[in-house]
């Protein structure tokens, strides 16, 4: 072969390589998609199981400190976070004198706020303000059973979701409300300048409920039945979006007026559709994920606000919850009901197949002792709605499929280390936090029942992509062993510019195991991932 022929052959080889790469990029979209790698780099374990000693957390970048709600000891624990691989407790803010159980903590650059439930069901809650050094500044009364606090982006407002949850015996049930606290810009005369107003739901006692909004306990006044839970605040600090979890709705609060302007219902998820199938029996087997003739109430716990393309959106973690006290148990098993023969002509077959399904008593719409609708708790998913209440996206059964595949892989483990998994509401998505990485918007979701963390790229709200799923039971490495983590509750994302090690971090507080685990987050390009495969 002469040199001219060899050069022609080399040219053709290069040309075909370029063509092959172009075709590969076109037909293999994974090459063009980024994913996330979530790796544990450190943890702190209290060794106290089931006591709620690590629940909701806040991070203070200037002093590299972490603050964690400790329900059992009625305090806020303070951690040195200068070395994220080994967070270490250095102090606490005592809250016992203010109530029975702290519930949430939030941070502004110069001040933190923690909520605490009253000492008795008839006592109002309290918010306590303190410095990053743990020095208490002030305390103010708020509504009944405050469940979450959050500073607005501009730091002017502190929003408090007062759940007004019934007492365990059901004999005391105060109205839910939203406290709007105007917070002074400096610390001088801090207590004297605090202004507290309360937005209530009394308006809805005298008018029909908006479409899709339900009463969890029929016969209740809406103002009593509505139980504010999660908080999201718009980027301009003008509006708060409050999840009414049991009521399957979102309340919209004008902060300047301290008034609930409107409520929109979230509707129902049709579990008859293939994309919305569920693990009916709660055993964690993927082969048993199936469709069923039920409607899922989304019932979000946490909610976050973000923008895309100049439009506002909300992301919901659809955990699900029911009213439950000694006076009223909303949950029941489907097999314990009759089904309306007009609505369910094949009632006998439905009861035989899906009898173990946990359903809401409110499905008996006409209260004639049979179910007119089969309503289940929680969407087992994340959803995206725009800020006007229009449905945009739901992740369907993606979470349950990921969870069950993992559980199925442990079926034949000779040491029987498969995590126990029997649940009526699926993996129970609960905690949420947003992150911006390489110009894209991601959301991290904690699965309370499964213990795992899921991440989506939500840059395009209409077409989010699941880009990571990590479970602590499979994260053991030479540096850190988070396999004891159970019940992820609080999630905080720390961007690289605020991180002690210069890398993006995800901090997870695990309520049940009393542990805090630190993960490093790395963006893995689609091309890199494809080459590695």
| Strand order of the biggest β-sheet | 1-37-36-35
**The CATH homology group name of one domain:** C-terminal (heme d1) domain of cytochrome cd1-nitrite reductase
**Radius of gyration from the CA trace?**
25 Å
Shape: globular
Number of strands: 37
Largest sheet: 4 strands, antiparallel
Q: Give me the CATH fold name of one domain.
A: Methanol Dehydrogenase, Chain A
Structural class: mainly beta
CATH architecture of one domain: 8 Propeller
CATH class call of one domain:
Mainly Beta
The CA-CA distance between the termini, in Å, is: 37 Å
Describe this structure in words.
With 533 residues, the protein is mainly beta. Among the domains are: 95-265, Methanol Dehydrogenase, Chain A (8 Propeller); 322-368, no CATH class. The strands form 11 sheets. A 4-stranded antiparallel sheet has the order 1-37-36-35. Strands 2-3-4-5 form a 4-stranded antiparallel sheet, with no helix packed on it. The longest helix is centred in the N-terminal third of the chain and has 25 residues, at 3-27. Mean pLDDT is 91; it is low at 1-7, 9-32, 412-419 and 527-533.
């Amino acid at each position: 072969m002469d040199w001219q022929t060899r050069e022609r052959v080399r040219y053709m080889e290069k040309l075909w390589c370029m063509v092959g790469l172009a075709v590969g990029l076109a037909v293999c979209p994974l090459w063009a998609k980024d994913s996330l790698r979530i790796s544990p780099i450190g943890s702190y374990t209290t060794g106290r199981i089931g006591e709620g000693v690590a629940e909701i957390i806040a991070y203070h970048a200037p002093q590299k400190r972490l603050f964690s709600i400790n329900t059992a000891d009625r305090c806020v624990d303070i951690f040195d976070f200068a070395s994220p691989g080994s967070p270490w407790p250095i102090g606490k803010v005592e809250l016992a004198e203010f109530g029975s159980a702290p519930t949430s903590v939030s941070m502004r650059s110069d001040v933190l706020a923690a909520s605490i439930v009253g000492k008795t069901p008839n006592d109002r809650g309290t918010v306590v303000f303190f410095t990053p050094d743990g020095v208490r500044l002030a305390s103010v009364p708020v509504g009944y059973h405050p469940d979450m606090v959050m500073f607005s982006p501009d730091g002017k407002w502190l929003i408090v979701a007062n759940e007004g949850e019934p007492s365990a015996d059901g004999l005391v049930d105060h109205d839910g409300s939203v406290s709007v606290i105007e917070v002074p810009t400096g610390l001088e005369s801090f207590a004297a300048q605090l202004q507290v107003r309360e937005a209530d739901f009394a308006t809805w006692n005298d008018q029909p409920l908006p479409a899709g909004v339900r009463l969890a306990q029929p016969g209740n006044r809406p103002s009593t039945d509505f139980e504010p839970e999660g908080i999201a605040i718009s980027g301009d600090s003008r509006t708060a979006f409050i999840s009414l979890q049991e009521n399957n709705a979102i309340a919209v609060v004008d902060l300047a007026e301290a008034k609930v302007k409107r409520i929109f219902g979230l509707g129902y998820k049709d579990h008859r559709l293939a994309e919305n199938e569920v693990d009916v029996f709660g055993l964690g087997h993927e082969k048993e994920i199936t469709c069923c003739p039920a409607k899922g109430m989304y019932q979000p716990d946490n909610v976050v606000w973000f923008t895309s393309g100049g439009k506002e959106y909300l992301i919901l973690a659809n955990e699900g919850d029911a009213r439950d006290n000694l006076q009223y148990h909303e949950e029941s098993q489907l097999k314990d009901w009759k089904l309306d023969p007009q609505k369910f002509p094949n009632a006998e077959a439905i009861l035989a197949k899906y009898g173990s399904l946990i359903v809401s008593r409110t499905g008996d719409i006409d209260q004639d002792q049979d179910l007119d609708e089969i309503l289940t708790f929680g969407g087992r998913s994340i959803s995206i709605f725009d800020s006007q209440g229009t449905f945009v996206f739901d992740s369907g059964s993606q979470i349950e499929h990921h969870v069950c595949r993992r559980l199925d892989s442990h079926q034949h483990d000779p040491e029987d280390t498969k995590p126990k998994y029997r649940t009526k509401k699926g993996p129970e998505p609960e905690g949420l936090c947003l992150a911006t990485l390489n110009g894209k918007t991601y959301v991290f979701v904690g699965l309370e029942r499964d213990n795992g963390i899921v991440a989506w790229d939500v840059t395009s709200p209409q077409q989010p992509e699941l880009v990571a799923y990590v479970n602590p039971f499979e994260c053991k490495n030479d540096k850190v062993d988070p396999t004891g983590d159970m019940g992820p509750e609080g999630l905080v994302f720390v961007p690289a510019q605020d991180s002690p090690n210069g890398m993006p971090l995800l901090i997870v507080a695990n309520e049940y195991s009393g542990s805090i685990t630190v993960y490093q987050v790395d963006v893995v390009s689609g091309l890199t991932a494809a080459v590695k495969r």
